[in-house]
Design goal:
Blueprint lengths: L1 H20 L5 E2 L2 E2 L6 E3 H7 L3 E5 L4 E4 L4 E5 L4 E4 L2 E4 L4 E4 L2 E5 L2 H6 L32 E6 L16 H18 L3 E4 L9 H10 L4 E8 L9 E5 L5 H14 L6 E6 L3 H4 L5 E8 L3 H8 L1 H21 L1
Parallel strand pairs: 11-12, 11-13, 13-16, 14-15
Antiparallel strand pairs: 1-2, 3-10, 4-5, 5-6, 6-7, 7-8, 9-10, 14-16
Helix pairs in contact: 4-9, 6-9
Length: 319
C-alpha cells in the first residue's frame, strides 16, 4: 500500500510540474502579439489607410478621409472608428518624437472601415454666363509621381541624434500624396513604406505611367553644421517647364519659415532618366540643429507638404 501511495503522489506531482512549465502566450491589446507586429508611425499608418491626419497630440489623434474617421486616445488606450469603439490601443512608443503604434492596427481598423464604390462622374459643361471671368485650368486628371528618396538599406543622411533622412522623406511625401489626391489629381508614390528602390526604377515608374510631373523628396546634409535652407534641383539640360515648376514650388516653400537656396542645376539620375518635368527637393539640412528639429516637427512637415502641393497647383493652373 505504501508503495502504491508513493506512486500515486509521484504521478500527481509530475502532472502539476508539467502544467506549471507551460508559459502563457504573450498577449498585447487586441490579441496575440505576432512576431512581425513592429511599431509604425501614425503618419505611415494613416497613409496606408488612405487618410490624412488632422490632429496629433498626446491626448488625441484623428485621421480621416471623405468616408471614415479614426480617433485614437493614447492616454485612455482606446481606438474608435466612425465613433464606434474598436479595441484597446496597446503598445505605443515615441521614436524621434514621433508616436509609433503596433502595425497590426492597420488590419483591425481596415476591417471596420465603411467601403464606398468610387464612381467616375463626368461633369456637365456649365451654362455660358455673360462677362463671366475666365476659369482657372482644372488640376484634376493629371498624374503626379511623388518619390520619397532613399529607404530600406539606404537611410540617406543621418543626423547626430540618429534621425534618418529616409524617415522624414517618407513622412512628408505621404502627406503630399494625400493632399494632391484630395485636389482630384492621380498620384503615384514610388514607395509607401521603408523599402529600397533603385534610382532608375523610380524614374521608370514615372515614364511607364506617363506622368505629368515627377517630384523627388530628400533632406540635405553638410559637414558644416551652420549650412541651412531648402534647395530645388532641375536637370542641367531640362526644359523650361521643369524650371517653372521648381520656381513655383520655391515661392511657396519660402513661406514655411525655412530659408531658400533657390533653384539649382544637377544631373541626378532620377531627373535625367525622367521624361516629364522633374525636380528634386532638399527640404533642409539634417546636419543643422535647428532645421533637423523643424523637419522632425509634425506641424512643419505639414507646412512643407502644403507648400509643395500649392506650388504644383500654381504651376498647373498657370499653363
Amino acid at each position: 500500500m505504501r508503495k502504491n501511495a508513493s506512486l500515486i503522489l509521484l504521478f500527481v506531482f509530475t502532472i502539476f510540474a508539467v502544467a506549471g512549465c507551460k508559459q502563457p502566450a504573450k498577449r498585447t491589446a487586441g490579441g496575440l502579439l505576432a512576431a512581425n507586429d513592429q511599431p509604425i508611425n501614425i503618419y505611415y499608418l494613416a497613409g496606408r489607410l488612405g487618410m490624412a491626419i488632422s490632429q496629433a497630440d498626446d491626448n488625441k489623434i484623428v485621421f480621416s478621409n471623405i468616408t471614415n474617421t479614426v480617433t485614437i486616445y493614447p492616454k485612455n488606450d482606446q481606438i474608435y472608428v466612425n465613433d464606434n469603439y474598436l479595441a484597446p490601443l496597446g503598445r505605443i512608443k515615441k521614436i524621434n518624437d514621433m508616436l509609433h503604434v503596433r502595425s497590426s492596427l492597420e488590419q483591425q481598423i481596415r476591417s471596420e472601415l465603411i467601403k464606398t464604390e468610387i464612381k467616375t462622374v463626368v461633369p456637365m459643361p456649365p451654362k455660358p454666363v455673360e462677362k463671366a471671368p475666365a476659369a482657372r485650368p482644372s488640376v484634376s486628371g493629371r498624374t503626379i509621381v511623388i518619390d520619397p528618396g532613399h529607404g530600406g538599406k539606404d537611410p540617406g543622411a543621418v543626423n547626430s541624434s540618429g534621425y534618418e533622412e529616409k524617415t522624414v522623406n517618407l513622412d512628408v511625401a505621404l502627406q503630399i500624396a494625400q493632399i494632391l489626391r484630395d485636389k482630384g489629381l492621380r498620384v503615384i508614390i514610388t514607395r509607401n513604406n521603408d523599402e529600397f528602390i533603385e534610382l532608375e526604377e523610380r524614374a521608370d515608374i514615372a515614364n511607364r505611367n506617363r506622368a505629368d510631373i515627377f517630384i523627388s523628396i530628400h533632406s540635405d546634409s553638410s559637414a558644416t553644421s551652420s549650412k541651412n535652407g531648402f534647395t530645388l534641383y532641375v536637370e542641367r539640360s531640362s526644359s523650361g517647364a521643369s524650371t517653372k515648376l521648381a520656381n513655383a514650388i520655391d515661392s511657396r516653400m519660402a513661406q514655411t519659415g525655412i530659408g531658400s537656396n533657390g533653384v539649382r542645376n544637377a544631373d541626378y539620375r532620377v531627373l535625367t532618366h525622367t521624361g516629364c518635368p522633374a525636380i528634386l527637393i532638399e527640404l533642409g539640412y539634417l546636419s543643422n540643429y535647428w532645421e533637423a528639429k523643424q523637419l522632425k516637427n509634425k506641424d512643419m512637415q505639414r507646412k512643407l507638404a502644403m507648400a509643395i502641393t500649392d506650388g504644383i497647383t500654381d504651376y498647373i493652373t498657370a499653363r
